[in-house]
Amino acid sequence: MPSKRLLAAVLTVVAVAAGTSAATAAPVVTTTNAISSSFADTFADPSIIQGRDGYWYAYATSDPLVANGPFGLMHMARTKDFSSWEYLGTVFNDETKPAWAAPGSFFWAPDIRYFDGQYVMYFTVTDTAANPGGDPAIGVATAPTPAGPWTATGGPVVAPKPDGNGGYFGTIDPAMLTAADGKRYLYYGGFYGGISVTELSADGMHAVGEPTQVTIGDRYEGSYVVYRDGWYYFMGSSMNCCAGPTTGYSVFAGRSRSPRGPFLDADGAALTGSRVGGTTVITQNGNKWIGPGHHAFITDAAGQDHIVYHAIDRGTPWLTNPFGINRRPMLIDKIDWINGWPRTRAGAGPSEGPVPAPTTGSSLGIDSTDPAAGLQGATKQPGDSLGGPTATINGAARTRAAAPAGSLRVEADVRLGTSFTTVLGNQVVATVANNRVTLTVGRRTASANLPADFDRTQWNKLSVQVSGSSVTARLNDAGLGDVYAEAQVTVPGLKLGSAPVGWFGSAEVDNLTVRPVARPVTRLADVPRTGDLLSGDDFNGPLGADWSWVRQDAKATVADGKLSWPLENADMTGSSNNAGLLFHTAPAGKSWIAETKLHLDTGQGDVRNYQQAGMIAYLNDSDFARLGSVAIWKTRQTEYGRELVARPSDGATSYGAAAIGRSAPTLWMRLAYHQNAAGEHVYQAGTSVDGKNWTWGASWVLPSAARIGLYAHGEFTGANPPPVATFDYLKFYESK
User: Fold this and answer.
1) Does domain 4-20+361-516 have CATH number 3.30.70.100?
2) Average pLDDT over residues 652-673
């Protein structure tokens, strides 16, 4: 900690200049999804990092950028403000790609990081030369700049994992995290075998020790983990990434106090459980974007988090002919933390029109890439070719202009001396010294130890933020959700005054930004709510005139206030179309919510493909959306599926699905109907395990008003005789 005399001297310097006016705020920059459209039609599985030159660099999997283009060997692009982009070429070429990859192998899902003075990229190699034919592994490459040149290591960081049956588990989709325990971790895996986490060697080049499985198979891939407020948030993508116009990919989260889990969702359900958990981070909302997923996180200069992801325009889903390559451009939207959970646009999902871009650069007249020019007491240094000029602080320095009162974020890349202190508003003091980060606000103090081997001579990222009554000081690799140490204090009634930002001690500083903090959103977006009862049936008597069948099943009976329906060994997808469907007349000419209560016990942990029952919005056997409680291998999930004719020339159909909430032997289900501004018919699904608290999820758009009904089928294995689906009612309510 600094001496009281030195601290008083710096506070005096800051206070003398407190009347200096701040620079005029820059105009708001907007961006419109898809943000990759200026240089690519598809830019899938994106990851992103800010280089020390102030650019944001994005990377994508090896699909062609445009129709009939080359597959490439992973792609690179960059932007300064997220409104204009420059394509930089591919990560590898045929000469520089990993020598241990089999000929014809693809390179997927790059994950970009920065530590130990170099850029590090993890990626999927779909096939290795050791066992040609499909043995995926995780590769790693390093570069001196975010644009390369990239040098791959001589072997995988995570080797292929045999499944014991002559094949290999899905060792795909890496995501690295530097955690508060000082260790580096790599998350990898997918639907086949689940997602695991392994510790890495200190240099990040090798897996060490035994991995820990953090998700059950058949549910998640595309992992990404961030640290926030003492929690590690695991996020993964669910269902099919690439089903063209029926893609229902979505992202869900769980959190843990440990980077190894166990990860639980907001309801306490585990991501490793058969009735698998997951709190929705992003899902489709009924606009043109479907299948949002395989994402990365960034934090902008105003402290606002953003999710960078790919999605599919349901009007132009294919890059090539139907059933070929999916067109998955890169999108970005803000993340709001509500009740401790990340929600895209407070739960509203992907944006379609112009929205504010991430805040970049600095206020107070500071050029973030030449920080000495905006500071008094700092010395300009030539820096290097990567970052340009830097500022050296030895003693005391401050901004030439006063920062505004209220919430404020100060962030910079730093190479630290023995002690370095940041002062905000003459009240907030954050010091890195004695191998710890210490935060002092008045009489309140908090500190966090840095790892014993923390290297202060390397470039790291330091942020100090005041947001309302919450104050946080954080030191990490590159601002991507990683953490070496974070100190937090809460000061009720804190009012940060207007004053220059001050520093004292010793450090080299680059990429400096000072910004008011983005106003936090704390309330979820509106969801459908039931009003007056419009119509329906509680099965207290025989089915009336409002009911009708397609392929009536004589085994379905009504008695004792219930519809009991043994699951048919039948299905609706593809060309099967042999399952019975029971419909009830829906209200006409208004928005409404249909609800049912379903009892269906499919057990746990065994394979019962694909026993299911639930609700359906039906136009015909090749055009419908169905919401069901379904057994998928060893998991039990709540699936909202969509089938439509994807190739009119021969009637070939496409089927995909989104996951919603979690399943239970007794499950309440809702379909909320409305027409959008284009006159399309939108059906949003919701589920509940208690009939009171509802999880609203994905929306599917149908070309016309559908018939609404119930189903119970599966084309299943296991459980003989088949389980019985029991429905308590089907009712229609006014939608508020």
Assistant:
1) no
2) 96
